[in-house]
Amino acid sequence: MQQDGKIDLSKVHDPYLAFGGSYKGDHKDTKDFKYITFDTLPAFTPHHKSLMSKVLTPELFEKLKEVRSAKGYTLSNVIMTGVVTPHLGTYIG
Prior knowledge:
Elements: H1 15-18, E1 21-22, E2 37-38, H2 51-55, H3 58-64, H4 75-84
Antiparallel strand pairs: 1-2
């Protein structure tokens, strides 16, 4: 934190970006929360223990990455938490 009480965002580590995600602007974004888009299969590590990291192959990712639910949720939205918290899997929005 800087002396003026503000956070220097250039020094903040963003775990979503570390796994290959990017902020592209999602219609569900709010001022407090931004969704990440993964254009390619996230870079899973040996620390990723969830079933998601085991069954989400590059082929399955490519097949599902553009699919949207009735409320506009994508595969990227569903896997965000499981990507940055290796012991977790997916969630439904």
